[in-house]
Amino acid sequence: MTAAIAIQGLEVVFDRFRALKGVSLEVGEGQSYGLVGESGSGKSTLLKAITGLAPVASGTVTVNGKTLGKTRDKAFYRDVQMVFQDPYGSLHPRQTVDRLLQEPLAIHGIADGEKRIERALDEVGLGKGFRFRYAHQLSGGQRQRVAIARALILEPSILLLDEPTSALDASVQAEVLNLLEEVRRRRKLTFLMVSHDLAIITHMCERLMVMQNGEAVETLTASQLIGHRVSEDYTRNLLRASEGFVRV
Amino acid sequence: MSGDTLLEVDDLRVTFPTRTGLVQAVRGVSFSLGRERLGIVGESGSGKSQTGRAIMGLTPPQAQVSARKLAFDDIDLLSISPRQRRSLRGNRIAMILQDPKYSLDPVMTIGRQIVETLRTHEKVSKAEARERALAMLQAVQIRDPARVFDLYPHEVSGGMGQRAMIAMMLITGPELMIADEPTSALDVTVQLDVLKILDKLVAERGMGLIFISHDLRLVSSFCDRVVVMYAGKVVEQIKASELRDAQHPYTRGLLNCMPRIGFERHPLPVLDRKPEWAA
Questions:
Q1: Which residues are registered as beta bridge partners of A162?
Q2: Its family (chain B) (predicted)?
Q3: Which of A186, A200, A245 to mutate to test the interface with B (most CBs of B within 10 A)?
Q4: Which residues of chain B make contact with A42, given a CB cutoff of 8 A?
Q5: Where are the beta strands (DSSP E) in A15-148?
């Protein structure tokens, strides 16, 4: 199996702060890979470094066999798309859904916009009725569906998901997670998903990396995690925390 | 009313005027609270936060609050003057909000905010207020209170900010604490620390607690009793320990839709909302 994303010794430095300290990982084509850790562990920074939104100090990122340089070309952005955490912040407040979905098409010079927009909305379960609404006329779950539609409209092979459901209600979260699984199955997408919630990661991903302070703590398969076969105390703490509050 | 009942809510309604007519965010909610931990659970828009805000007296001015009874310690909250209401708010009834990033004053140091709360409600000298604020910061397990006292909210982490908020709310020794999603903005590990602190302080001080959250599992592990809200109404009231036997399909749906470690379900069950739930 070839690696869709291969990262070697990635360092990200903001001023003098080392946000990522030499992280390496490999995500196979069609795999779903999870990154877990608390805020400040560098998991979102890793995604941003892949897309070129964070200053990479050293290390290499290889996507679909191509090692990325300082700048990324259009083809990269067509192949790799990102869904952000906060659907309230990631959609333009003064653009209709139609306008939002046209943007990526315009950037990449894709002609059959009309059809693609309809298909993308259909695919995320929104339908045509939502096409000319503004973001503020949508619920959180619907907004996140629009964000997913915007990512899918370019037919990428890799989706980077940065806490895609943490701003949503539990019941809506289930719907969005199901949607993501479904599009992944249908389009054979590769997922790199960030979450602080171990349960979501084990539900969505086959492999995962636990991160802390910009470093990898350990790499596990979902079944190792489910079976509590973990070797690091930090992971054990995370597992305990995800079981909920226990009064002592 | 018996001496054990701290708060009585009977047929509480909160109505917002909108361009398209009146919207009832809360439609006849009733419950009573002793010195116990009560959870209010529901999705966004279920009216759980507006219920909390109505008790606190923080409903936006354009909204209408009505109730057959809304009484805290036999004081009728709807008929007292704004001045009397203010003397209760932050003093005997306190509220913890969701995100310390937004709910703390960004241009005031943490220490000053805590001292301000205290000096609004009690006549204490500046030096004593500082002492008590530092002690309170210690109580919420902030390791270096003297340092944190002089920091601005943006200089501390989310967990630290939320602890500071708890300190600020507890410093007046309230009898009723309303916590509106107190840990939703925090990391899982920090969540548990903050809950532990809250749990300990609520138990020690014998407060009544209303814990508002969308996370049914979390609420059931933290509270004695749970009120489940849907579309502005209470659909079920149940003891947390008996949640497994919940009757209402909405409650059961909320319980089931969360992914759990070790329970493989693809796709996850989703809520099949019935119009009669809202009726």
A1: A194
A2: Belongs to the ABC transporter superfamily.
A3: A245
A4: none
A5: 17-28, 32-36, 56-63, 66-67, 80-83
**Domain residue ranges of chain A, discontinuous segments joined by +:** 3-242
Please judge whether B157 and A174 are an interchain contact, meaning their C-beta atoms are less than 8 angstroms apart.
no
H-helix or E-strand containing B67?
Answer: none
Residue at B209: amino acid letter: L
CB pair distance less than 8 Å for A242 and B188: yes
Interface contact A226-B43, CB threshold 8 A: no
Going residue by residue through chain A, which has 248 residues, state the pLDDT in tens, using 9 for 90 and above.
579 999 999 999 998 889 999 999 999 999 999 999 887 889 999 999 999 999 999 999 999 999 998 889 999 999 999 999 888 889 999 999 999 999 999 999 998 889 999 999 999 998 888 999 999 999 888 999 999 999 999 999 999 999 999 888 888 899 999 999 999 999 999 999 999 888 999 999 999 999 999 999 999 999 999 999 999 999 998 888 888 788 76
The yes or no reply on domain B1-92+176-185+210-279 and CATH 3.40.50.300 is yes
**pTM, entire model:** 0.84
Helix (H, G, I), strand (E, B) or coil at A17: strand
Contacts of residue A204 in chain B, CB cutoff 8 Å?
A: 259
Among the partner residues B222, B261, B270, nearest to A171 by beta-carbon distance: B270
Does ipTM surpass 0.90 in this model? Answer: no
Fold of A3-242: Rossmann fold (3.40.50)
User: CB-based contact (8 Å) between A43 and chain B?
Assistant: no
Question: Hey, are the CB atoms on A199 and B258 less than 8 Å from each other?
Answer: yes
Q: In what order do the strands lie in the sheet with A215-221?
A: A80-83, A158-162, A190-195, A32-36, A207-212, A215-221
